[in-house]
Amino acid sequence: QVQLVQSGAEVKKPGASMKVSCKASGYTFTGYYIHWVRQAPGQGLEWMGWINPNTGNTNYAPKFQVWVTMTRDTSISTAYMELSRLRSDDTAVYYCARSLAGSNYEYVDYWGRGTLVTVSS
Amino acid sequence: EIVLTQSPATLSLSPGERASLSCRASQSVSSFLAWYQQKPGQAPSLLIYDASNRATGIPARFSGSGSGTDFTLTISSLEPEDSAVYYCQQRSNWPLTFGGGTKVEIK
Asked: For residue B94, which of A47, A67, A33 has the smallest C-alpha distance?
């Protein structure tokens, strides 16, 4: 079965960086895009971007363009999302999610359980 | 950026009733719209994509309709487990965007 297992919760200070991992299993990792979505406490969903694990190509939402980096390691079927220069309003649950197949790669079906990142001094 | 406006903010209905959730786009997204369900403490799950296609394993009581700027998610007969927040999402233009959500409460 498809599973996305994310790294554990983190507490960071303002100005620091964070890196969340997302290990995929149960399918061909390079066959589907990985998206990253975040959700601030009690708030809605916010799209951050995606990575094509096959090529390494990325597409970031303009809001995050300057300070997010998405990478992958195909040898261990793992995607990573790194966010720099953290601020308190980056406190959120960060989800990775797998795309649908083919031309529907900008919808997602399987999600990780989320990683809570708290930014506090 | 395309803004998706969902209404109502909260819907309170009894089991067996019909729920209609609206999603309106600030410009046409053709049929490139999806619906997700998020239960408390859980990640979202895909219900509908391309406006009307049910995702794998989704019960037939969930249906989607619409095109252009106006879309509807219909739950034909509410079950207690349908209590959740429902989000729409467009993939017509980058960046991908979500609506603000509709909370469905079961009386």
From this structure: A47
Q: How far is it, in rounded angstroms, from Cα A84 to Cα A95? A: 17
Q: How confident is the model at residue B70 (pLDDT cuts 50, 70, 90)?
A: very high
Separation of alpha carbons B86 and A70, rounded Å: 27
Q: Is A97 on the interface with B (CB under 8 A)?
A: yes
Whole-angstrom distance, CA of residue B8 vs CA of residue A39:
21
Share of chain B above pLDDT 70, in %: 100
Contact B96, A106 (CB under 8 A): yes
Q: Mind telling me how many Å the CA of B96 is from chain A's nearest CA? A: 6
Mean pLDDT for chain A overall: 96
Torsion angle defined by CA atoms of residues B21, B24, B29 and B33, in that order, rounded to the nearest 10 degrees: -20
Expressed in percent and rounded to 5, the helix, strand and coil fractions of chain A are 10, 50, 40
> What pLDDT, on a 0 to 100 scale, did the predictor assign at position A86?
97
pLDDT, residue A23, reads 98
Whether A61 and A36 have beta carbons less than 8 Å apart is answered as: no
Which candidate from A44, A59, A106 shows the least CB-CB separation from B98? A44
Task: Give the per-residue pLDDT at A102.
Answer: 84
